[in-house]
Amino acid sequence: MFRPIDRRTVLKGLGTAVALPWLEAMLPATSRAALAAPAARVPNRLAFFYVPNGVNMQAWTPAEEGTNFALPPLLEPLRPYKDDLLVLSGLTCDKARPNGDGPGDHARAMSAYLTGCQPRKTAGANIKAGVSADQLIAQKIGHLTRLPSLEIGCDRGLQAGNCDSGYSCAYSANLSWRSEAMPMPKEVDPKLVFERLFSGGSKAEAGAAAARRARYNQSVLDFVLEDADRLRGKLGSADQRKLDEYLSSVREIEMRLFRAGRESSAKVEAPKGVTVPSGIPKEYAEHIRLLGDLLVLAFQGDLTRVSTFVFANEGSNRSYRFINVPEGHHDLSHHGGNKDKLEKIKKINLFHLTQFAYVVGKLKAIKEGDGTLLDHCMLVYGSGIGDGNRHNHDQLPILVAGKGGGTIKTGRHVRYPRRADTPLTNLYVSLAERMGVALERVGDSKGKLTDLAG
């Protein structure tokens, strides 16, 4: 009698555990023949992508509503995925506004973005914001996967100090909050993310395996070959091909991490007592893409279903010389209507959206169930600031990519009334429901967005 493979099966070796992608062999025989009821067997995944300093809103917002909308210049990188995209205009993050607290819009923008709570204005240790949407969901479904959630990003963040007009650096560097006083620091080193995803057994075993791989230039796959070969014998040809493609992706990322580590160790001189991160690429685009590829693997192997990805900390003044924008991002965001500055901001925004489109494309290329991995994802991309010059927190630039298991009607532009101040957190309550989590509220939410399904 045919016995389906358990969805949580992993390939094991010394200090190593490689999760499997979704395979037809995981279905009962009856469902396997018909490939029926996809929503019942394939989970949804949710990720929040954050970019700082707002965007060039004139080049972002579509003129038309509904399905017959033209992509504005900034969304051009997403043209191949227009039918998988939902553009949401008019959402508001009210708790990023001063509300009597004066300056500090960047700190409030990031800390209120997922919490919907007004952060306490302090540069001391008594920080206070709220529990973020990703963590509220992870608290309910995190036990179903190896990692309850995954927090990644490209900028390290201080957890103390004054970073924005009397606000702690913790506010402008952390998107995810486990409790109102405990942010979830993001991991910026792709190699450490990789180890977290594929290490198994005790910490001692995982450490020994990592050291052995480094010493003998081995792959994590070298430790699970026996398990992988044994599993292949139980799979059909389609599943064998899918498994081989997945394992090839794991190995390809390992090779890129090795190259990145070789570059960083050769060029970075660490202060005394500080360990040089060994997997951070020199090039910013490769850094983003490596982290994006790891996120895709985490979703593909069902290692986690909830993630946050910060492209840069709020208020970032990173230079983008590699796209001919040598000025700092934050400085440019105070454009004062200057056309040259607005064009340079547009270049930065296009760069970020091109990296986001890369992740969307990777997810869409992976078959899962009766569709693609993207079909079972909801990727929220946006910023807690609309126009960087105005520091406004209404009319935010918000996108959702992916169909949420067929529960979201994509290929549309939805505009919410300007005067309604529709909370951004209403979106999170709606997405949580699609993750199987009923949240009464997230921060300042007032209900659900009832029009996501069309």
What does this structure look like?
- This protein has two domains: 1-36 and 195-279, no CATH class; 44-188 and 306-454, Alkaline Phosphatase, subunit A (3-Layer(aba) Sandwich).
- The protein has 13 helices and 19 strands.
- It has helices at 29-34, 38-41, 105-113, 133-141, 169-173, 190-198, 203-216, 225-232, 237-267, 284-300, 329-333, 339-364, 424-434; strands at 10-13, 16-19, 45-50, 85-89, 91-92, 150-153, 162-164, 167-168, 177-179, 182-183, 306-310, 319-320, 325-328, 367-368, 371-372, 377-382, 398-401, 412-415, 422-423.
- It has a seven-stranded mixed beta sheet, with helices on both faces.
- Helix 9 packs antiparallel against helix 10 (284-300).
- The chain starts with 9 loop residues before the first strand and ends in a 20-residue tail after the last helix.
CATH class of the largest domain: Alpha Beta
DSSP helical segment count: 13
Secondary-structure content class = alpha/beta
Strand fraction band? 5-15%
Largest sheet: 7 strands, mixed
- Name the helicity range: 25-40%
CATH third-level topology of the largest domain: Alkaline Phosphatase, subunit A
**Total domain modules:** 2
How large, in whole angstroms, is the Cα Rg?
Answer: 22 Å
